Amino acid sequence: MAQLNNIIHQPARLQIMSALMALDNNELADFTYLKKLLKLTDGNLGAHLAKLEEADYIKIEKTFVDRKPKTYIKLTGKGRDAFAEHIKALKKIIKGA
Amino acid sequence: MNISKEDAEQSLTLIEQTTRQTTKSLIASYESITLIIWGFVWLIAFLGTHFFLKWVWLIWMSLCFVGFLTSFLFYYFRYRAGTPTKNPEAGKIGRKYFWYWVILFIYLSIWLKILSPISGLKTNAFICSVIMFSWVTSGIWSGSTYLVLLGSIVTAVILTGFYLIPISYYSLWMALAGSLPIIATGLYIKLRWRQ
What we know:
The complex is a heterodimer of chains A (97) and B (195).
Chain A: H1 6-9, H2 11-21, E1 28-30, H3 31-38, H4 42-54, E2 58-65, E3 68-75, H5 77-95
Antiparallel strand pairs in A: 1-3, 2-3
Chain B: H1 5-51, H2 56-81, E1 85-86, H3 90-115, H4 120-142, H5 145-164, H6 170-192
């Protein structure tokens, strides 16, 4: 039975997961891009990402592009499944089942 | 964890909005410039065809080369400046697109050979409509509604030019009516869909 997910349900984290779901399977989002897209501060986004990473829903990759540090984020398989489950649970509530 | 029906609806709306906004912002980052570049190639090439008809092949070949080079340079510098996303399969996708266009070019040549002798006007309308066909089909496959709409609009422009506009004004019509929707769509996406 589909269950609501406490970690994902928080609005900022819900947006982070939705944005990452919009990407291709192996595609990673740039930290700065996500920050601008979701209108979050560095600290706020960082804290929510840490929570999602702790649950193993996302993977954070730190790298260098042209000698500049870059942080990329991608959804894990577990994260994808948890998000799909969460959407199912939301739809079930709306249907009143 | 229990939430009300209204809360569930709000959450689903937030998910849909964010997903749509992400897709649009990525299109604005990558595809809008390509549309603007090729819209201008189309505009200048058709204007060139109208005013300097005897140089038609040279005009189209050199402008297509400029279009490919500009697109390549744009993506190269965009990558250097930092792209919003990183896709480990980008090379594979890029190669697929490259071969898609090579194969389309080969088939266009085959069809033109089969259909020859064929007038310059028919050749032009044929090539342009096949390219628009590729925009519409790739729009259907990738779920890009804007590409399906744009391809259909430009196809309607081609058909109008071919059947209703006097032959001596065909290239001028295509330059203005054909490039306008492409450039306008590129600019609209660039300005309105970015985050």
